[in-house]
Amino acid sequence: MLPTSNPSETPDSSAPAISVVVPVRNEAPNVAPLVAEIAAALAGTPHEIIYVDDGSTDATAESVRALGTVRLLRHASSCGQSAAIVTGIRAARAPWIATLDGDGQNDPADIPRAWARARAEGMDTLVAGWRTTRKDTATKRVTSRIANRIRAKLLGDATPDTGCGLKVFPRELFLTLPPFDHMHRFLPALVLRAGGRVVSEPVGHRPRTRGVSNYGTLDRLAVGVVDLLGMMWLQRRWKRPRLLPDDPASP
Known about the structure:
One of its GO terms (biological process) is lipopolysaccharide biosynthetic process. This protein has a seven-stranded mixed sheet, with helices on both faces. The chain has eight helices and seven strands; from the N terminus they run E-H-E-H-E-H-E-H-E-H-E-H-H-E-H. It is 38% helix and 17% strand. It has helices at residues 28-41, 60-67, 81-91, 111-121, 138-155, 171-175, 187-193, 217-237, and strands at residues 18-24, 47-54, 71-75, 96-99, 125-131, 167-170, 197-203. By secondary structure, the protein is an alpha/beta fold. The chain has a single domain (18-236), classed as Spore Coat Polysaccharide Biosynthesis Protein SpsA, Chain A, CATH 3.90.550.10. The protein starts with 17 loop residues before the first strand and ends in a 14-residue tail after the last helix.
């Protein structure tokens, strides 16, 4: 069931208005620069930054602890990006969630604009970032473009860039969705299937300048095909009841 309360206001003035959830694995060099950018983008706004370390084998956790201003959650072993996102959102204290990748390629300066649009669109809406000018390798751009077209045709999610890590949405909306491995790739389709709405917001994209990618193109492709088939199955099996008006005779 979709959320029915407006999360624009938090009843507790000391609580954050927005939680920024960053799933990471072996991103130690990117922690401090990215956190500084997030803090600058949300200066003056009550917020919290949650890093979910998905079984890193480098100094990612130590880098987060050294800052002293970031909530750190750790998986004992790597469970995947989707599991890290779920962990962070379940632990979040704010009614609004922003997610972004931990490699520094998403620009935190885009969060306020995406959040403003999310509040304007309503509590049933996910704002998906749209990297109109990607700074990836040619191979990655081409494969991503093909994958987006195939996915959009088969799932009907009408989202040009579902793979963008920067998204903003109400926490309650996310918690209505069924969690599963790699669900982050299909958030727009899941929200639509649950009866919500999805809008795309153009955002910046930057080249990776520190660290290395934890995923290869072939790995993404192989997993993506299996996940796409699974998502198509879920769409067919997931029934959304249509509620009738309350019975006036009910107590």
